[in-house]
Specification:
single chain, alpha/beta, Nucleotidyltransferase, domain 5, five-stranded mixed sheet, binds 5'-O-[(R)-(carboxyoxy)(hydroxy)phosphoryl]adenosine, binds zinc ion
Length: 333
């Protein structure tokens, strides 16, 4: 079964053709980074306009690259939630238009479920049940995934997401957007013991995360040192800050593995590209003697191949939308 998938939830306009949820026939991503870079972050209105400008050529390129036309496609999957509402609406409306004109079924996909599915295309042997650590720009979740469409949240952030905390610290250090990725590069040779940060805990909810205190402490440190006319070593500061965030992710993930008894860990979302997190997760896998799956770097960030993969399993479970499908900025996984 071949699915045409569309993703426009944030700052990438993406389309892909995926066969049987696992085989990527094409995967086209048009990034908007050059358009947002001068503002230091994603400007929602610019994102929506840019999706409108790019969607036709991106979908056409995905169909062409896969060497298919609509007669060879069996369903259209689209990220419907969560995300920037104006951005999501571009993809959802375009997918609806295609569904009307081709009479193909329309499959709504949850963006975070799609991130998890990026592991199905990177690692063909990944199958639920497993524990998922989802670390994106807007969400940080630990989920028990009992089946392809059955997710139970075991822990989540109470405030900022890990990606957001990395992006904001990077911006305070004067790094360009996208901050998380640039901070990772800068900090690669830094001394991660140079600065100490608080290790946040959420009372009574040991699997939940809190990153806003960490973010505030790095911003205060930068602010105080600039007031005193001192300069901090951004390499060491970045390395120490990344360590504090990764420590918290690893600690809760280890606890969730112990409590759930699951022997497989699947990692997903843009922050899964972080070099320190990837190393520490591999180490955790060895220590606990469990399988750890992390997507290939090209599938960590937003893309439509992951939407086509999850769309396949949503279709099999009967999740087919009518033309009243609407985009939603927030939605539980
Ligand atoms: O999943 P994603 O592409 O978009 C959302 O669904 O939010 O995640 C974007 C997040 C951003 O916060 C970005 O800074 C972070 O992923 N990110 C990284 C790295 N690459 C992207 N964070 C740390 N290290 C990286 N190498
Ligand atoms: Zn994402």
């Amino acid at each position: 079964m071949k699915i045409l998938a569309i993703e426009t939830s944030c700052d990438e306009t993406a389309a892909a053709v995926v066969e049987d949820g696992r085989k990527v026939l094409s995967n086209i991503v048009a990034t908007q980074i050059p358009e947002h870079i001068k503002y230091g972050g994603v400007v929602p209105e610019i994102a929506s306009r840019s999706h409108c400008e790019n969607i036709v050529s991106v979908v056409t390129a995905a169909m062409r690259k896969a060497a298919v036309d609509f007669e060879n496609i069996d369903a259209i999957a689209v990220t419907a939630y969560p995300g920037l509402i104006g951005a999501l609406l571009v993809g959802v409306n375009y997918a609806k238009g295609l569904s009307i004109s081709t009479a193909l079924p329309l499959v709504p996909v949850h963006h975070l479920r799609a991130h998890v599915a990026s592991n199905y295309i990177s690692n063909l042997d990944v199958k639920p049940p497993f524990l998922a650590l989802i670390v994106s720009g807007g969400h940080t979740h630990l989920c028990k995934v009992s089946d392809y469409t059955s997710f139970e949240i075991l822990g989540r952030t109470r405030d900022d997401a890990a990606g957001e905390a990395l992006d904001k610290a990077a911006r305070a250090m004067g790094l360009a957007y996208p901050g998380g990725a640039n901070l990772d590069k800068l900090a690669v040779d830094g001394d991660d013991m140079a600065y100490t940060f608080p290790h946040p805990r959420v009372d009574g909810a040991p699997l939940d995360f809190s990153f806003s205190g960490l973010k505030t402490s790095v911003v205060n440190l930068l602010h105080n040192s600039s007031q005193k006319g001192e300069t901090l070593d951004n390499k060491d500061l970045g390395a120490s800050y990344i360590k504090a965030i990764v420590d918290s992710l690893i600690k809760n993930t280890a606890l969730a593995l112990d409590e759930s008894g699951l022997d497989t860990l699947v990692v997903a979302g843009g922050v899964a590209a972080n070099s320190v997190l990837r190393k520490r997760l591999e180490k955790l896998g060895k220590e606990k003697n469990i399988k750890v799956y992390i997507p290939e770097l090209r599938y960590c960030g937003d893309n439509a191949a992951m939407v086509g993969s999850q769309g396949y399993y949503e279709f099999l479970s009967g999740n087919i939308a009518g033309l009243d499908l609407n985009a939603k900025a927030t939605m539980d996984i």
